Amino acid sequence: MDVKIFDKLTGKWLIPTVLGTKPTPSNGYSAVPVNGDRILILKEDCSAVDSFWFLEVDSPYVKEQKKLLGAEVVAWSKGVVGEGPKPVVISGPSGVGKGTLISKLMKEFPTTFGFSVSHTTRAPREKEIDGVHYHFTERSIMEEEIRDGEFLESALVHGNLYGTSVDAVEAVTDAGKRCILDIDVQGARLVRSSSLEALFIFICAPSFEELEKRLRSRGTETEEQVQKRLRNATAELDEGKSPGLFDHILVNDDLETCYENLKKLLMLDDTAANYQPTVRSFQIPMSHSVSIKDQKILIRCGTSELGKVITSLFLLDVSSLKGGSPGRTRGLRIYAIDSYEES
Q1: Catalytic residue among 216, 218, 231, 280
Q2: More confident: 309 or 59
């Protein structure tokens, strides 16, 4: 689907830089302006999971990319019915036990939680599988994707780039699982500043002395490495308490108590009720019309059955949209209103 922008000042058509995952071709489509900063594209003869796409023309992400690139920019974002489970960002210094807490969650709730697969520019090690352990990629490609805002967070480690892409997190959410991001405080700050809505939890030890004790008891690092981790921990503890960064701070004094508190924060008793898939069977036929009022889009569909024309009415609610490019736009609601036979 080609995109052009009409410049009213010059009276000419411009070809913008197009970011995001583009929709696959379809037999036709309808376009509806939404919220003044994006256009909803309704694809014809497609399944429910591929019917709704947003072309962002003046969203915060597009504005940011225009400044960075110094050019006209538009961005695609796939529309999703329902919201999906909110990702969880878990951070904390080395030695606080966050890895153990996450392992316990994954073991007790294997169908509820999932990990995103990170990207890296380093070479695969023996027995590492692309797409399973990491997404292995070229440095030039990853640098370009980082510039385009396709990564939630990234860092240079020992000469190689590592990062979490928006698509990697969205893939876990699309599978109906709640994505866990085990990242450092710097990465958490980058995710917080992105369009991704997540729950941010900081894990800390009851005291700095206890943290040092735990690090030394592991017996896996040299004294130099221990001192480096302690210096990093001091900075992370200070930054972790910054207002507005983390939603909750858990003190891991006793592992089982901390784990129970973590489960309460994640409202795991309500998991089944909160995370059921909301996508219903829906397909926009070639013969249809759309109209919009107060963030409600009326879709009138006409289909032929046994020589008769059946008209169906659907209401698409776009009042609770969340997210956006370079990820998904979630929060669409669709309701069947009526169906009747044309005389």
Answers
A1: 218
A2: 59
Gap between the Cα atoms of 273 and 276, Å rounded: 6
Annotated active-site residue in 38, 178, 192, 229: 229
- Active-site residue flag, 38: no
Which amino acid belongs to residue 279?
V
Residue 122 a catalytic site member: no
* pLDDT bucket at 253, cuts 50 / 70 / 90: very high
* Cα 280 to Cα 316: distance, rounded to the nearest angstrom: 12
Superfamily in which the 88-274 domain is placed by CATH: P-loop containing nucleotide triphosphate hydrolases (3.40.50.300)
Torsion angles phi and psi, residue 308, rounded to 5: -115, 150
Domains in the chain: boundaries? 5-83+278-341, 88-274
pLDDT in the model for residue 312? 81
274 membership: H or E segment, kind and range: helix 271-274
Burial class (CB in 10 A: 0-12, 13-18, 19+), 267: exposed
Categorize the per-residue pLDDT at 27 as very low, low, confident or very high, splitting at 50, 70 and 90: confident
Q: What is the 3-state secondary structure (H, E, C) of 289-323?
A: EEEEECCEEEEEEEEEECCEEEEEEEEEECCCCEE
Mean pLDDT rounded to a whole number for the chain: 86
Question: 293 or 165: whose pLDDT is higher?
Answer: 165
125 catalytic? Reply is yes
Q: Calculate Rg over the CA atoms of the chain.
A: 24
pLDDT in tens, 272-283: 444 444 445 566
